[in-house]
Recover the amino acids of this structure.
């Protein structure tokens, strides 16, 4: 018959987290890993319930009750800080000599490894704890890599979207973005004014000073337009030297006229490109969303366009609101020039 | 990378790319750095283990064993371990053969060109990590298998780096 000492020797290698108690419930011996857990105060000779608090099953009150749990799952918590939770299973020793209790950290093993500074030698070679720690780390590392990838993809998506809605030369919105805004406003039924602005004499700047000068002028024009409008307005470059401005919620003709005239005056100030003075102007035509019964994007853009050309015909550097008679005049003009 | 005319400038660790993309990139790297590719690949392996930015990989490899010999024996499981972490990551098979005490041959099965060279760098850096002194030699084996012969001169040559099981923060 094997003695309790022999059993403890054997168990030290196989179950380094075991406790052997005597019939009175005192700790007789325990596995080597528990030395790290019990810290300064040795468990040997102490009542088992003084070191580990049995949390479940709750019905267990005495050592007798504990011995009766043989084979079922036990939930403990360390009485001392850090109050680590442990799982256990008890097997009674023969001839009423007490019991053998094997313990495990269960799911709290991640904390336990850190709290008690455990190493792989503290676990039996057949114990899967090390593999579990490995898996946790491997999965966390893989998850972190995936998370970083998602963040980068998200960033790239935002950048691509911004680019797709932005005119890269001026930083203004592009035609796509303008269509988007226009449709959004029309769908929501909100009122707005749509102003079509075309630069005058821009071709001469390009022809005289070159395209680089033209680009610089366009950038300055964009800055002036942003400056002359509210933050909630939309300023889009829709062609080489064509711009569309959308003023949400603004139907006041006087205010719009003032704004257009101020904008034209600002654009007429000479723009410096190196030592060269570039002079341009602008014509503008505006239509109000309230002018049509059922406004449509294409119709409003056409009407703003008609107003713009009326302004050009009237001698450039002007601003006009759309009026139905412009349409007839435009047709007349076309047939004359044909 | 732009100057190499590859037509791409980025690799993402967690995405799958056509194999020739890697080959073309490695060729471009060889030309640009003006160094032989095996040498570069070995440096890549060393970087993967010794650079603090990729500490995770070094820790995962240290789980293989408490000393360098145990670590070497854990390499047989490396492809399976990698697959546990990232299910579609297929690493070529590895086989450790102990020729004599302190003398090992590591067979690298074919599948990923350059894998054995990267592994050379990893083995060298892990030896430093464990504080072991080793000699490594690379030769071609049969049927596309590559062989790394490892001579363990001293298993506790230097202090090595500490490995704390619980150092990982979740």
């Amino acid at each position: 018959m094997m003695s309790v000492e022999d059993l403890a020797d054997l168990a030290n290698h196989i179950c380094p987290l075991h406790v052997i108690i005597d019939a009175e419930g005192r700790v007789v011996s325990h596995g080597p890993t528990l030395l790290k857990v019990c810290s300064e105060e040795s468990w040997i000779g102490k009542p088992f319930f003084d070191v580990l608090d049995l949390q479940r099953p709750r019905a267990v009150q005495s050592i007798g009750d504990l011995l009766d749990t043989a084979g079922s799952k036990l939930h403990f918590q360390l009485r001392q800080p850090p109050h680590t939770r442990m799982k256990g299973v008890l097997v009674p020793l023969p001839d009423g000599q007490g019991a053998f209790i094997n313990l495990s950290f269960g799911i709290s093993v991640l904390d336990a490894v850190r709290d008690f500074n455990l190493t792989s030698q503290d676990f039996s070679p057949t114990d899967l704890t090390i593999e579990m720690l490995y898996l946790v780390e491997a999965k966390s590392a893989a998850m972190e890599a995936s998370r970083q990838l998602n963040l980068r993809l998200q960033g790239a998506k935002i950048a691509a979207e911004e680019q797709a809605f932005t005119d890269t030369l001026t930083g203004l919105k592009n035609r796509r973005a303008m269509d988007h805004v226009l449709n959004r406003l029309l769908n929501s039924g909100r009122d707005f004014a749509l102003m079509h602005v075309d630069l005058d004499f821009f071709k001469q700047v390009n022809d005289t000073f070159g395209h680089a000068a033209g680009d610089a002028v366009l950038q300055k024009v964009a800055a002036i337009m942003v400056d002359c409008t509210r933050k909630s307005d939309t300023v889009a470059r829709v062609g080489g030297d064509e711009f569309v401005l959308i003023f949400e919620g603004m139907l006041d003709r006087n205010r719009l006229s003032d704004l257009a005239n101020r904008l034209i005056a600002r654009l007429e100030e000479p723009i410096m490109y190196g030592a060269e003075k570039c002079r341009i102007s602008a014509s503008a035509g505006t239509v109000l969303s309230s002018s049509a019964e059922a406004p449509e994007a294409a119709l409003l853009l056409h009407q703003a366009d008609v107003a713009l050309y009326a302004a050009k015909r009237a001698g450039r550097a002007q601003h006009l609101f759309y009026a139905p008679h412009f349409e007839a005049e435009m047709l007349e003009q076309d047939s004359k020039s044909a | 990378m732009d100057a190499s005319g590859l037509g791409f400038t980025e690799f993402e660790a967690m995405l799958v790319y056509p194999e020739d993309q890697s080959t073309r990139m490695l060729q471009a790297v060889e030309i640009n750095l003006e160094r032989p590719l095996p040498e570069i690949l070995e440096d890549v392996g060393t970087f993967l283990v010794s650079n603090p930015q990729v500490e995770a990989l070094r820790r995962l490899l240290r789980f293989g064993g408490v000393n360098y010999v145990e670590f070497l024996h854990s390499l047989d499981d490396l492809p399976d371990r990698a697959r546990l972490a990232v299910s579609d990551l297929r690493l070529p098979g590895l086989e450790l053969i102990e020729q004599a005490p302190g003398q090992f041959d590591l067979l690298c099965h074919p599948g990923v060109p350059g894998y054995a060279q990267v592994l050379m760098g990893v083995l060298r850096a892990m030896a430093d990590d464990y504080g072991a002194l080793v000699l490594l030699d690379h030769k071609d084996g049969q049927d596309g298998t590559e062989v790394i012969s490892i001579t363990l001169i001293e298993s506790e040559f230097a202090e090595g780096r500490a490995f704390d099981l619980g150092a990982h923060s979740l």
